[in-house]
Design brief:
- By secondary structure, the chain is of the alpha+beta class.
- It has 12 helices and 14 strands.
- The strands form 3 sheets. It has a 7-stranded mixed β-sheet with strand order 6-7-3-2-1-8-9, with helices on both faces. The protein has a 5-stranded antiparallel β-sheet with strand order 12-11-10-13-14. Strands 4-5 form a two-stranded antiparallel ribbon.
- β13 and β14 form a beta hairpin.
- The chain is globular, with a radius of gyration of 21 Å.
Length: about 375
């Protein structure tokens, strides 16, 4: 059986392009928390040029930083904030330092610094999701996140509570430069401006709003850089309604056609659409490898290191490895890829994705 590989973030932007029937070429923005990249690093703040032929081509990324202890960086936004602050050495950042001292013990910070200095359990990432987490920390989020996206949702709520008239100054600015054959989106000037606002006592709502508005400008600036007037959005960060409203509101003035996630989930629930699109483009739609949602109907708990379960895919059942989703319980829906459950989905998203996949199959002419 032929396998058609489709990278995580390529699938995100392809899914949105398929749903909106976006004419190509276009620029795809894939912003999420975590996805393994083809270069061995963790991606999550990527831009792709999408054309009629071939897979989406990665052309830009966020400036990488370390995610100390990987999954623990998801639960503790202070870890990502510490990593970002580490790269601010050329500037005096008293505001950031004061916040770190108040939100993290010296012992923990020294341990994280040692890990990053020695590159121990500190993978490099260009994740927009982790940047949201760090920004939430700078704005006052303390402690442990209840789930992935918790800190980012708090940041969104603070931004939405502030009107444009209340916001002091312009949105934060980013710098773009070439690095390793890619356009690198440097967040350091933006973070220095955040430092200045912290020292001036600017409210967390205003800082959060200026950050969101800076991302809106960034997305369109990258599109202009590549002379593309179509922008496709994919990835869990675009579940942020305030961010989407900002992008939609600016699209007309920036003369850019915006493709937004609507019926197809912008998070990992939309994977099957993107992978199906690329597989069909390669002329191998009868021999493809998809991530498909299904419901856990039984679990074998005899061996915790090799946890297995039976998953129902709408009448067809298969044994699936559940080792990557230890939180999954009987009745949960999971995304399954080559016999491995990758993540837990809510029922609404899973059933919607299954319906959309069925519609694609029914409306696609056989090759």
């Amino acid at each position: 059986m032929d396998v058609v590989p489709v990278q995580h973030h390529q699938a995100h932007v392809l899914a949105c392009a398929v749903e909106n029937e976006t004419p190509l070429p276009a620029l795809g923005a894939a912003w999420d928390g975590t996805g393994f990249g083809t270069d061995g690093t963790v991606w999550g703040g990527e831009f792709f040029v999408m054309e009629e032929e071939g897979a989406p081509r990665r052309v830009a990324r966020l400036r990488p930083f370390f995610a100390a202890r990987g999954d623990e960086a998801v639960r503790e936004p202070a870890r990502c904030a510490c990593s970002l602050a580490r790269q601010m050495a050329p500037w005096r950042t008293d505001g950031l330092e004061q916040r770190l001292q108040g939100g993290m013990t010296l012992q923990k910070r020294e341990a994280l610094e040692a890990m990053m200095a020695r590159n121990i359990q500190a993978p490099a990432t260009s994740s927009m999701g982790r940047l949201f987490d760090a920004m939430a920390f700078w704005c006052g989020f303390d402690g442990v996140a209840g789930c992935e996206g918790h800190a980012a949702m708090m940041l969104e709520s603070w931004a939405a509570a502030v009107s444009g008239e209340e916001m002091p100054g312009e949105p934060y600015e980013w710098v773009m430069h070439e690095e390793g054959g890619l356009l690198e989106l440097d967040w350091r000037p933006m973070l220095k401006a955040v430092d200045d606002d912290l020292l001036r006592g600017v409210s967390r709502g205003c800082i959060a709003r200026k950050f969101h508005e800076s991302l809106v400008n960034l997305a369109f600036d990258v599109a202009e850089r590549f002379s593309l007037d179509r922008l496709v959005l994919g990835g869990g960060c675009f579940q942020n309604a305030f961010l989407l409203e900002g992008l939609a509101g600016m699209a007309q003035s920036r003369r850019c056609q915006l493709s937004l996630p609507q019926r197809v989930p912008c998070n990992d629930g939309g994977f099957p659409w993107g992978r199906l699109r690329q597989s069909c483009a390669n002329g191998k739609d009868n021999n493809m490898c998809l991530a498909v949602p299904g419901k856990i109907v039984s679990i074998n708990e005899t061996d915790p290191l090799f946890r297995l379960g039976v998953v129902d895919f709408g009448g067809v059942t298969r044994e699936v490895n559940l080792a990557c989703v230890p939180e999954a319980v009987l009745g949960d829906y999971v995304i399954v890829h080559v016999g491995m459950a990758l993540s837990v989905l809510d029922e609404k998203t899973a059933l919607q994705t299954r319906r959309e996949m069925r519609e694609i199959v029914e409306n696609t002419d056989p090759v």
